[in-house]
Every structure is written in C-alpha cells, then in structure tokens.
C-alpha cells in the first residue's frame, strides 16, 4: 500500500535519516529501526508514559506520534540524557534513591523528570506529582520517584 | 496498526480537496492522541491520514483586544495554558487544557481535536461553550460557522460533513469585568475522565450585578450541554453564593446522564449543582482579583 517515507530529523543532537511506513509510530522507529531501545512500550495508547521522549522541547508519548511526523524535528530520548560518560543528576538520584524496581517505567520517568526540572528546578512535590501523572509505575509506587526528582532538582541548582 | 497513506498539506484547499477525494477513508491528524489510539485499536479505519499541522491557520494562537482569540484547530493544549495572556483572558479554557490527559498528552492534544472527537466527557468543550466560541469550518462548498454549543450531535459525532475541516475556533474578546472557570470531578487527582464537569463564565455590570452568564456541562448527557435556563437566571442578579447555588439547581435540568462505572445518574446530577456553584464562585473570585 503506502510506500515508505524518507524522514530527516535530529535525535539526541545528531542528524538522523530513516525510512518508515506512515503507520509506524515514532516509538517503533526508535526501537526497531534505529536501535534506540531505551524508550519502552508499555500500554501503547498514551496512558503509561514509558515511551516518553522530548519532541521539539516538549515531552510526548512516542507511541502516539507517527514516525513521519518528526521530519525536521528535534527528538531527545533517554539515550541522550547523560552527558557522555557522566550521568545526568536525575539518573544519579534515581539510582541513589532506588527509585525503581523492574525498570520498565524508568526511562519515561527520567525523560519527563528532566524536562520538568529544566523548566522548573524548584518544582515542589505537588508540581512533580502533577507533571509526572502521565507516567505510571506498577511496581513500587511514587514516593521514591518523587524524592529522587526533588533531590535531582536540588543537585542541578547546586551545580549552576 | 493497519497501513495507511500520509499527507501533510500546507493549505486549507489542499486539505479539503484530499478530504473530499477520500471521504470517510480519510482521517485528520492533529495531536493524534485520540485518532492514533482509535486507528491502532481498529475503532476507526483510514486509507489516508491527513496531518493538518503544516497549515498556518490550523496552528494559530492570536489574541487581539478587539476580536478576541483565534485558536487554530490543531494548536496544542499546552500552548493555551503556557501563553499568559491567553490563560488570563480565558481561564476556563486554560483550566480544561491543563487537565486533558497528562503532560505528554497536553504537548500534542489540541482543543480543536478534543472538539472533533466529540466525547460527551471532553473537558475543553464546556469551556468553549461558556466562552461562546464559534467554530470556523471550511469545506468543498465554502466556509461556514457553527456555535460550539451546536457542534456535537452525539457521542463521537458532530456537524462536520464529508470534505469539511475544522479550521479555527473564535472566542469573543473579554474585559476586566468578566472571568470563567472549569472544574470536573474525578476520583483521582489527575489523568482521568470526568464523572461530571462544568464551565462557568460571568460578566459583571457597572452596579456589580451579573450582566451576562454562560454555563456549560460535560459528561452528563450525550453531548456537552449549554445550560441556558441557569445562565439566564443569573442575569441581573447579585453574584451571591445563594444565586450561584440556585443556578446550579437550574443547570441540573439539562443533565440526562447515564449510569456507568464512573458514576450513577443521581451522583452525576448532584455533581452538576456542586460544580456549577463552585465554578461560578471561582469565576467571581478571578474577576475580583484582577479588578
């Protein structure tokens, strides 16, 4: 039916080109086509946030974006969060605070948390819980996650 | 997902030509937060998906003191609440845009898409009705305007005919003497579908009495409802808690909800009274704060 399309985009700061069919989601393109398997497929319908990526500066569920839509866009995935060999404060704090159990939801939480802290490093517990409401964890609950994000915010403020 | 073709026209004419050519087999893509789920789950089928986000009119967000707000049909919810002038002028719309799904959804989901999806529980539609929004529609036989309160015709259905495209929403200009609010009831704190929702807009006259009011409801009928009797009751009245409560009672007359897992008929009707009263009080407090 529909031919594959050629898409030029920027992923984690690097220019990327790929071919995809119009019905393939950005999540499928990232995982199956580009080998970026950090973004996870949870619900595949926009409820769980495990596939969260930053698209043109905003967090989105990559399962609800078509691959063809990112022509000319800037995409940031969990693979782009760390600065070379140094973990991002949000990654450090998730590790140190044991803010994960099985880990499937973690990449989505990391991406959304980083996006929030870049916008609002002083985010209070209420704001964190509100902005992370689109990320679901079915293992362990949210207290450790919220604390890790608060700690990361403080660490980011210190280093600035 | 079943394969489909994709087009991203840059003009309204190209988009309506494609819609006319493909009829029911074409589906419009704005934020994709409903249509991609529906296509994936087989609830809708498409031979071609028409991405309308490259059409300048569809991504407009223009606020003008004379003409009010021109909101492109595919402009995402986050643009509404992150644009301070727009959020201040149309607080009910900002309230509702801020609770459609989670943050990831608000980055993509549009107010126009929420309207075209025509869910009875859509959060932004009562706010559009309360602000007396007009929908600008372009189609093969030219353009037409439909009031937001007349747009939805049944759950998932609306007035759009084959080949027609919702282009913009026009919200009348506002003054310092008016404000609005939207509130819904959900058993969680966020990320849920309204058990019932209400949007209220009021304008005060020089004497401090209510000069005009518009109240609209979600999730209590097959389509979002304009509560005309309750709105008209408030005109000329003092903005008191008693009158707000009475408007809430009158608004119950347009509620004809269903029993489902989210709530019973009786519960939803009761919520209408509570939410109308609360949103009127919030709208009044917002006028007083700005004034």
What is the element layout, followed by pairings?
The complex is a heterodimer of chains A (160) and B (291).
Chain A: E1 5-11, E2 14-20, H1 26-33, E3 52-55, E4 58-61, E5 74-76, H2 89-96, H3 106-119, H4 125-131, H5 143-159
Parallel strand pairs in A: 1-5
Antiparallel strand pairs in A: 1-2, 3-4, 3-5
Helix pairs in contact in A: 2-5, 3-5
Chain B: E1 5-7, H1 12-22, E2 26-29, H2 35-40, E3 48-51, E4 61-64, E5 68-72, H3 77-82, H4 84-89, H5 91-97, H6 103-106, H7 111-117, H8 124-130, E6 134-139, E7 142-147, E8 152-154, E9 157-158, E10 165-171, E11 178-185, E12 196-204, E13 210-218, E14 225-226, H9 228-234, H10 241-251, H11 265-290
Helix pairs in contact in B: 5-8, 9-10, 10-11
Characterization of the model:
The complex is a heterodimer of chains A (160) and B (291). Chain A is an alpha+beta fold. Chain A has two domains: 5-80, Beta-grasp domain (Ubiquitin-like (UB roll)); 89-159, DNA polymerase, domain 1, CATH 1.10.150. Helices cover 34% and strands 16% of the residues of chain A. Chain A has helices at residues 26-33, 89-96, 106-119, 125-131, 143-159; strands at residues 5-11, 14-20, 52-55, 58-61, 74-76. A five-stranded mixed β-sheet of chain A has the order 2-1-5-3-4, sandwiched between helices. In chain A, strand 3 and strand 4 form a beta hairpin. The model of chain A has no long low-confidence stretch (mean pLDDT 95). Chain B is α+β, with helices and mostly antiparallel strands and 291 residues long. Chain B has three domains: 5-51, Uridine Diphospho-n-acetylenolpyruvylglucosamine Reductase, domain 2; 56-171, Uridine Diphospho-n-acetylenolpyruvylglucosamine Reductase, domain 3 (2-Layer Sandwich); 178-290, Enolase-like, domain 1 (2-Layer Sandwich). Chain B has eleven helices and 14 strands. Chain B has helices spanning 12-22, 35-40, 77-82, 84-89, 91-97, 103-106, 111-117, 124-130, 228-234, 241-251, 265-290, and strands at 5-7, 26-29, 48-51, 61-64, 68-72, 134-139, 142-147, 152-154, 157-158, 165-171, 178-185, 196-204, 210-218, 225-226. In chain B, the strands form four sheets. A five-stranded antiparallel β-sheet of chain B has the order 4-5-10-6-7. A four-stranded antiparallel β-sheet of chain B has the order 11-12-13-14, with helices on both faces. The mean pLDDT of chain B is 97. The interface between A and B is medium-sized, with 34 and 30 residues.
């Amino acid at each position: 039916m529909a031919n594959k399309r050629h898409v030029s985009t920027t992923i984690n700061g690097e220019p990327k080109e790929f071919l995809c069919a119009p019905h393939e989601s950005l999540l499928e393109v990232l995982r199956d086509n580009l080998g970026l398997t950090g973004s996870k497929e949870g619900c595949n319908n926009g409820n769980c946030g495990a596939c969260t990526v930053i698209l043109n500066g905003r967090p989105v569920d990559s399962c609800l974006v078509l691959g063809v839509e990112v022509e000319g866009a800037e995409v940031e995935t969990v693979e782009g969060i760390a600065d070379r060999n140094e973990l991002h404060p949000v990654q450090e704090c998730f590790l140190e605070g044991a803010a994960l159990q099985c880990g499937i939801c973690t990449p989505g939480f990391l991406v959304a948390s980083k996006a929030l802290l870049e916008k609002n490093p002083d985010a209070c517990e209420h704001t964190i819980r509100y902005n992370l409401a689109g990320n679901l964890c079915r293992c362990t609950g949210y207290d450790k996650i919220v604390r890790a994000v608060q700690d990361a915010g403080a660490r980011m403020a210190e280093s600035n | 997902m079943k394969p489909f073709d994709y087009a991203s026209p840059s003009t309204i004419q190209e988009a309506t030509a494609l819609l006319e050519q493909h009829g029911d087999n074409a589906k419009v893509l704005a934020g994709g937060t409903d249509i991609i789920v529906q296509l994936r789950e087989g609830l809708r089928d498409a031979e071609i998906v028409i991405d309308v986000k490259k059409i300048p009119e569809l991504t407009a967000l223009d606020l003008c003191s004379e003409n009010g707000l021109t909101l492109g049909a595919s402009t995402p919810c986050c643009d509404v609440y992150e644009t301070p002038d727009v959020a201040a002028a149309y607080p009910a719309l900002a309230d509702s845009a801020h609770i459609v799904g989670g943050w990831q959804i608000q980055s993509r989901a549009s107010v126009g898409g929420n309207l075209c999806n025509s869910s009875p529980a859509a959060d932004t539609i009562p706010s559009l009705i309360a602000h007396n929004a007009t929908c600008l529609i372009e189609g093969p036989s030219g353009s037409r305007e439909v009031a937001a309160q007349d747009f939805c015709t049944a759950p998932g259905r609306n007035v759009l005919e084959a080949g027609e495209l919702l282009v913009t929403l026009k919200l009348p200009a506002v003054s310092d003497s008016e404000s609005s609010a939207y509130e819904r009831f959900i058993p969680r704190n966020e990320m849920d579908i309204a058990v019932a929702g209400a949007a209220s807009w009021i304008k005060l006259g020089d004497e401090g009495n209510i000069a005009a009011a518009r109240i609209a409801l979600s999730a209590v009928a097959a389509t979002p409802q304009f509560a005309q009797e309750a709105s008209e009751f408030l005109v000329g009245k003092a903005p008191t808690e008693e009158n707000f409560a009475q408007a809430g009672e009158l608004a119950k007359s347009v509620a004809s909800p269903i029993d489902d897992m989210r709530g019973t008929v009786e519960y939803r009707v009761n919520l209408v009274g509570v939410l109308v009263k609360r949103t009127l009080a919030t709208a009044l407090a917002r006028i007083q704060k700005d004034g």
